[in-house]
UniProtKB/TrEMBL annotation:
This is NAD-dependent protein deacylase. It comes from Corynebacterium pollutisoli. NAD-dependent lysine deacetylase and desuccinylase that specifically removes acetyl and succinyl groups on target proteins. Modulates the activities of several proteins which are inactive in their acylated form. The gene is cobB. It holds the Pfam family SIR2. Residues 1-254 form the Deacetylase sirtuin-type domain. Belongs to the sirtuin family. Class III subfamily.
Amino acid sequence: MGTDQFADALALARDAARVEIFTGAGMSAESGLDTFRDAQTGLWTKVDPVAFASVDSWAKDPEPMWAWYLWRGTVCRDADPNAGHRAIADWASLDGVHVGVTTQNIDDLHERGGAEDVVHLHGSLFAYRCTICSRPWKGRIDYPAEPVARLAPPECPLCGNLVRPGVVWFGEMLPQDEWGRAEARMAAADLVVVVGTSGVVQPAAGLPLVAKHFGAKILEISPEPTELSRIADVSWRTTAAQGLPQLVMGLTLD
Ligand code: APR
């Protein structure tokens, strides 16, 4: 593995006082959660992307989608944050640096790994709301012990419509408050560390470019080249759970 890439990455990290970590599904890969587009593990290989992440499909037949999201909730709850999640929290605990997280992930592993300041651009696996009146669902959710083909979503106590996952589906707007927070943090960052995202889904993937426009350096940590590699000052071919701990260890040895 390129030690000069590590040295270059460490040099960027040393100079940064305001760091924003921009993450995608690859951040949780070493926790055992599938990514979306990796050939060998991608969720898409098992699930038709259109059928399981669009408002139209939900309107047509919600039960298979509800079953899939609840199963993903089960898998996520059984997963543990990895060394990469924990390294981000360690970095944030160092003096003289502020570290925020802006994630495309709907899992809660950043929070369970100790990150305190996480923006979720695409919502959360554990937030549910009414499809129509958007009232947050506060009732019980029974996560299946095994994957099942269909499950009936609960009904909203206020208006009687179906409760849906609190995630952003293709074609839907991102939560405006979260988007505003993410943009502001990218504009203020000295360094954006891009970890575990292919950089193909907009508008999220445009955020590192916002940061670069305002003068931030871009460090990418990814085993493969991505759509964002071309804007990275350093693109370090390693994984989240190997690279981030190594980087933070390097900072603590300073
Ligand atoms: N460490 C770091 N990166 C990894 C690892 C790892 N251990 N394993 C895989 N990767 C990389 C892959 O090479 C790929 O570039 O993580 C990236 C995962 O990309 P995607 O599967 O496309 O996931 P993501 O970029 O988060 O998708 C964005 O698309 O499907 C929608 O809403 C969904 O939030 C998701 C969005």
